[in-house]
Amino acid sequence: MPPTTAARPAFRTFPAPADLPEPLPEPTRADLRLDVVLGALSDPLRIGIVRALLLEAEAFDHTCGWFGLDRPKSTLTHHFRVLREAGLLRQRQYGLERRSQVRVDDLQARFPGLLDLIAAWTPPEAP
Amino acid sequence: MPPTTAARPAFRTFPAPADLPEPLPEPTRADLRLDVVLGALSDPLRIGIVRALLLEAEAFDHTCGWFGLDRPKSTLTHHFRVLREAGLLRQRQYGLERRSQVRVDDLQARFPGLLDLIAAWTPPEAP
């Protein structure tokens, strides 16, 4: 087990429910690339999505509606896809709904400290 | 002083020589933004530049020639500027030469763990 610091926030994860749909296509843990992951996080909205799940998740995974983001659905779908394809989020299709969770174990294993950075991020002041 | 882990690599920094030129324009420590910093690192060449300075610097700052990168000068100038404008590198103009160093203190203060992530990054296999 890697050493942790006293300041390490607790990330909110929940046990997997029964009968989960299969995850949508995503890179394997071994295929995660730091440059791609950082690129996916180069947008405040996208860092904010990952941070909200890390610190405020209330269930195993969440629909994009849960985040309360004031953007068109197609825009949100795009941002969630970027995060999934980079390997930050795992997404599952539940009928018409797509729900997302952070790949906490995979990211901690490959990029220790990354999730702490995201959790410590402060959203910019609203304009 | 923040807690550190046993695995923390030593970053190579050198004392400032006398009569340094002024730094080129850059964001202040308070103005550093994580999303912008991560965006600047979303390119393997740029992560590689910061990593090389962190782990292999041999002097206070280095010209782009020091890195041995096989790219046109104008391309390198662009990549170094992106890193400076995001706040990762400090650059100074020495006559015709521009030299770069990592803003280690500023980045450690604002984004603890970020430099460790960069130092731990493994360059992709050469194609």
TrEMBL record, chains A, B:
Family matches, as Gene3D superfamilies: Winged helix-like DNA-binding domain superfamily/Winged helix DNA-binding domain
Low complexity bias: start-end ranges: 1-17
Alphabetized SUPFAM superfamilies for the sequence: Winged helix' DNA-binding domain
Residues annotated as domain HTH arsR-type: 36-116
GO molecular-function term, one example from the UniProt record: DNA-binding transcription factor activity
Region (Disordered): 1-24
Protein name per the record: Transcriptional regulator, ArsR family
Species this chain originates from: Goodfellowiella coeruleoviolacea
